[in-house]
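# nightly structure sweep
# worker-07 picked up a monomer target from the shared queue
# config: single-sequence mode, recycle default, output format = C-alpha cells
# input follows
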Amino acid sequence: MTKNQAQAHWEGPLLSGVGTVELATSGVATFPIGWAARAEHIDGATNPEELMAAAHATCYSMALSNGLAGNGTPPETIDTTVEIGFDPRSGLTGSHITVFAVVPDIDADQFAKFAEDAKVNCPVSKALAGIPITLDATLKA
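# output follows
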C-alpha cells in the first residue's frame, strides 16, 4: 500500500485569506489557493475542486487503459477531461467525465462498456460516490 501527501498552508479568514497547497509526496508543484479561486475562478490560483478534477481525470484514464488492455485491445491514446461542479451554498454538485480515445480493434459499443466500467470502478469515482458522476465517451477513428 502506498500513501501520498499534500500539504496546505492558510492565512486569514475564508473570504480574504490566502494560502498554498503543495504536492508533498512528489514535490513537483506548489500552488496558490484562495476563496476567490474557488468561487470566482480567478487565474493563477487553484482550488480543491480543480485538484479533485485532476485526480479523477488521471484515475479514470488509468482505469480505462487497464480495462482495455485486459481485453487485448490496449488504447493508443486516451484524453480525459473532468469537470467538478461546486456551489458555495451546497458544496460539490457532480463530476462530469469527457473522454476521447483511439483504440484499435474495438467497436463503439464495446468501448462504451469499458468507459462506463472505468467510470464506476476507478478508485476516485468510488471516493466521489456521494455526488452524481456522468460520462461522455467517444471512440475516435
